[in-house]
Design a protein that fits this description.
9-stranded mixed sheet; alpha/beta; 15 helices
């Protein structure tokens, strides 16, 4: 069961490789269409257990900028959103990449190739002539397959592993001399060495990037990509505000989207918790939704919380963080312009569990807890979660403490429940049991079923499906009915009462 769950999480969080051809482009559009990126290189591209690669911070920058894209390649590396695809081969040279690129690029014909490969030689080999020949060959082979491909070649990051890598400064000089000023050929050079300080930006081996090094590399790639790509249709610029400091000094933040314009009356708020089995995920998952509801006049928040892949935590700690999110927002309601009595929680899968936990476990006593929301909008939430089935066996005996199904009361907020009929982790029978329990306590619960949809109902890293827009319409109607949004309600679809 645990392996099956992990496989599902990674499937839900991973953008699958596009194996057929580069994404078609609409050259008449003023906006950038969906595109593919192939990270090509060695371990610095692949990443590892003890160091950071540039892939995830670059993904964050591109998604936040509003671009629709896929990282593709034959290999996968884990990160906080599951995995990212690439063609990074630890321990291998640029000559190895040259020998492999025909096969790789035929299978993964990316629109953009990011080539960072200058390590894994010894200075005694006098490797630069062979390496430069390999760079030329890689370019020729890629353009023979796809003349429209953009190839960005990096002057590679510096290293303190000397004298082994003392050839790198000269290699970088020759890369610049050979490949700069060739943008009309769709060949570009970026200087990853500039500003990269191996004494500060690498781990103990003096070669591989630490978090600051990975961030610096991602920034260099991103700045060049912006000169190649058309503008995105929309970008996301939330205020990122700390709401909690952890024992180790790390911070948890809220990504807050504010409506435009000034308004005297306090606004309703909606808070999203990302999905990922309490193990993976990022607040960026709900940037689209937050931007949309901010445009409709709400204060929209996407919350970070501790996850097992980073913090080695369990769902119990996740619930504590979710409580603190709502308490913090109520405590700062005046400065944020929020009506503290109109806060809706939402989320997907494990995030839906958090959104519904704070609305149930906080209502069973004589007083409603300060972290209880006023409305719940739940996307395929795990409301009955025997934790032994989700990789948290040691806590299985306690799971009912935070399982929403077992903590409903008459104070539970009105609820919208969205679920696919083919969801293997949240059966329709469980959703109906949750609905029946709420209604038994006199609480409204609207259940909308999406015929044939699984878990999740849609993949936020894939091209958006019709179901994405159906969820938006149903959510709009629910918020309008409860006076969180203004407007006319549409007729509900796929509703079970």
């Amino acid at each position: 069961m645990k392996n099956r769950l992990i496989s599902l999480i990674l499937t839900c969080l991973t953008s699958y490789s596009l194996l057929f051809a580069a994404t078609p482009k609409d050259n008449n559009s003023p906006y950038q269409q969906r595109f593919t990126i192939l990270g090509l290189g060695d371990s610095i591209t692949e990443g590892g257990d003890f160091f950071t690669c540039y892939l995830f911070p670059l993904w964050q920058k591109l998604f936040s900028a509003g671009y629709e894209f896929d990282f593709i390649g034959s290999r996968q590396s884990k990160c906080r959103i599951g995995t990212l695809n690439h063609c990074g081969f630890s321990g291998h040279t640029v000559e190895f990449l040259d020998k492999s690129i025909d096969s790789l690029y035929h299978q993964f014909p990316a629109d953009i190739v990011l080539l960072h490969a200058g390590h894994n030689h010894f200075v005694e080999e006098k490797p630069i002539p062979s390496m430069m020949s390999a760079y030329r060959s890689i370019i020729r082979k890629i353009h023979a397959i796809n003349p429209q491909a953009h190839i960005i070649i990096a002057q590679v990051v510096t290293s303190g592993k000397l004298p082994k890598y003392s050839y790198i400064p000269e290699l970088n000089r020759q890369i610049e001399a050979e490949f700069s000023n060739r943008e009309n050929e769709r060949i570009y050079v970026v200087n990853q060495a500039k500003g990269f300080d191996w004494t500060k930006d690498t781990v103990h081996d003096k070669v591989h990037p630490n978090a600051s090094g990975g961030e610096k590399m991602a920034t260099v790639w991103f700045e060049k990509l912006k000169t190649i790509l058309k503008p995105a249709k929309q970008s996301f610029n939330p205020d990122i505000v700390k709401y909690k400091t952890l024992a180790n000094g790390d911070s948890l933040c809220l990504h807050i989207f504010h409506p435009e314009g000034k308004q005297k009356k306090a606004r309703p708020a909606i808070v999203y918790f990302f999905g990922g089995g309490w193990t993976y995920g990022t607040p960026i998952q709900f940037y689209r939704e937050c931007a949309y509801y901010a445009s409709k006049g709400m204060v929209a928040v996407s919350a970070d919380y501790r996850i097992a892949s980073i913090h080695k935590t369990t769902p119990f700690e996740c619930v504590e963080d979710a409580k603190d999110v709502i308490i913090w927002l109520r405590g700062h309601a005046r400065e944020l312009g929020i009506d503290p009595q109109r806060i809706a929680t939402s989320g997907a899968s494990a995030g839906g569990h958090l959104a519904s936990s704070v609305g149930t476990i906080g209502t069973t006593g004589t007083k409603v807890a300060p972290y209880c929301p006023n409305l719940m909008i739940l996307n395929y939430p795990v409301v009955d979660n025997p934790l032994h089935g989700f990789g948290f066996q040691a806590l299985a005996a306690r799971y009912k403490e935070i399982a929403p199904l077992y903590n409903v009361s008459s104070n539970t907020p009105p609820t919208l429940f969205l679920l696919g009929t083919k969801d293997h982790y949240v059966p329709v029978s469980v959703a109906k049991a949750f609905q029946d329990t709420l209604q038994h306590h006199g609480v409204e619960c609207q259940l909308n079923l999406f015929e044939g949809a699984g878990h999740p109902i849609f993949l936020y890293r894939q091209p958006l499906t019709e179901n994405f827009y159906k969820i938006r319409e149903i959510t709009d109607d629910f918020l309008i009915r409860h006076k969180y949004l203004s407007g006319k309600k549409r007729k509900p679809a796929h509703t079970q009462h």
